[in-house]
User: Fold this.
Amino acid sequence: MMVEAISGWGVGAGATAIDSHLRRTINFDSSAAAWDFTSWVPDAVVMLIGPNDESKLAGPALGVVEQPESARAVSDQATARPQTPRGEHFVKKYVQLLTLVATVYADASTKPAIISVCGGSINGLDPCDDILSAHAQFNQTQSAFAASFVTITHAHWHQINTASGHGKYNGCESHYNAAGHHVLMHDIAPQVKAVLGWA
Assistant:
């Protein structure tokens, strides 16, 4: 497993966009060599991103979704969801990030799955509806790639995100500690396996 993250960054709809740094071997060095995405192709690119954007955007909250029976079925339903200007901006930036992933792995003989996770700490359910809408737009324009959506259950999210942010599932600044991540992992692992076709 390889993890690529810049703390506090996002898709660029409120938080600073991470996409311009993902192509570099050294993120913040503009002269650094470009990452060779053909040297290693993962089975999946799993993205947990968006809450920092949502927390910095003004406007009404867009609500939450329950754990889907089928990632594809829920993504198809997203086309009918009404969008606020805030939501439209987020969806546009999220589609750009999905498209970047598809672009850098375009030449891979076996394309990696692209999986978005909804269920981060603090306000982690806020971006769910917008991510589903972004997936619907992305999937309509792609033939080689398909974005899938997995999520923590609504009940488990409320269990591990206490009002005080200092429960047994929380660590620094109300983010998940190991116990919180364990709950999230148990909810999404079966969904990820289903997307990848793993027994």
